[in-house]
Amino acid sequence: MKQHVKIGVVCLARDTYDFAAAAEIYGKIKEDLKNIEQVTYSFIDDLVISVEDARKAADYLASKNVDGLVVISGTFHLGHLVLELNKEIKKPIYLWGLNELPYNGGKIRLNSVCGVNLNASNLYKSGNRQYYASVGDTIDENWINAIRIDAALKNAYIGIAGFRAHGFFNLGIDELNSFNEMGLILDHFELSEIFDTKVSEEEINDKLTKLKNNFDSSDINEYQLNKVAELAAKLKKFVDTKGLTGLAIRCWPEFAATFGVSPCAAMSLLQSEDYILGCEGDIEGTLSMIAQRAIGGETPFLADLSQVDFAGNFALMWHCGVAPCNLWDGKCVRSLDTYFAGGRGVTAGFVMKEGEVTFSRIDSAQGKIRLFMQKGKAVPMEKQLAGTYAKVIFENSVTDVVNKVIYTGVAHHVSMVYGDYIRPFEIFASIKGWEIIR
């Protein structure tokens, strides 16, 4: 389900134009907006014409703590109005221009686009870059989805269990800069808190049944299977009890050495149940998954840009065996395997389904947060190796993608999700003033 957001909506006008027509159009817009899922609106029902109107509207909308503000230029209007709104409401603004109506006696009726131009210029020259503009009969829902990303990150409660994986320095973050940029407050938990979480036999058996229904477990023994089920139950209980939106996990080497099994297979099962779990203590990767889910992406997960075929122009998006098991291609054997950590590295093993995919990563470097994005298509392939993976042909050449990642220092995990979610991320990055790497 998409992230719920609160949006303020106001329509500006001037009585020297056809404000009655603008009011009629505004009435239809309000009804149309109500059809968009997971949005609570605070409408200023009457047209805002005077400075006093704008001040009253600003006070009301500020009291509603909206996540974003839609400013419709019903007609051309005073330049004061958007500034009075922005003075009280320090949130992203959508500047909406209406298509011009047929002329009436040779007189322009709305002059709405010029109103958008006026508002954009005033905002820009006052230092506000958190605006987005479009002209048309309907709102650009990509902007609403960008607001969903912003709200999801601000409201997220993120945990890290253990630390980043050994030697993965590039996954470290500046916590207070992340708070300043995204509102992130990160809580640390010891791995022992997960190991020591109490679960019932019923909870373990529930996970055991789901593992047997989803995987061929003939290559692992009963002890390994039961440990995976126990860990899945413990992880679920831990996340639920702590009220976490997402959890980044130091998944090696302590899990195999101390608990007796790696968390990969358990994470594959839980991620298929809509839990956000990041591998190897990757906090920014976990945030990237939360961002994708906020705009409707189902079961995102972390993958590596792994084996690259420059001649064939594709890459294998692989990880050790943690992808959500619901992303299976439906053809190969979906198995539980152990191929590392002396028999304790139990992982999921399958080829992922074909389809359009989006890759995103919120990624920090030298005090700045950037946003990496890429789009591609997962195509069919035979199951040839352990782990979970998809053969992907990118929208750009694989050479360009590899060079972009290498020469901008993007970390080696990206969040992968099925579907095209590029545009909302572009708008979100623009709102945040982040560099886009694409």
CATH topology of the largest domain: L-fucose Isomerase, Chain A, domain 2
Largest sheet, order of strands side by side? 10-11-16-15-14-17
Low-confidence stretches: none
Q: CATH class of the largest domain, anyone?
A: Alpha Beta
Q: Could you give the count of β-strands?
A: 18
The helical percent reads 25-40%
CATH architecture type of the largest domain: 3-Layer(aba) Sandwich
The figure for the number of domains is 2
Rounded to an integer in angstroms, the radius of gyration calculated over CA atoms is 25 Å
Secondary-structure class: alpha/beta
**Overall mean pLDDT:** 96
How does the major sheet shape up? 6 strands, antiparallel, barrel
- Strand fraction equals 15-25%
Total of DSSP H or I helical runs spanning 4+ residues? 14
CATH superfamily of the largest domain: L-fucose Isomerase, Chain A, domain 2
Shape: elongated
End-to-end gap: 27 Å
GO molecular function, one term: isomerase activity
Protein name: Fucose isomerase
Organism: Clostridium omnivorum
Domain L-fucose isomerase C-terminal: 338-435
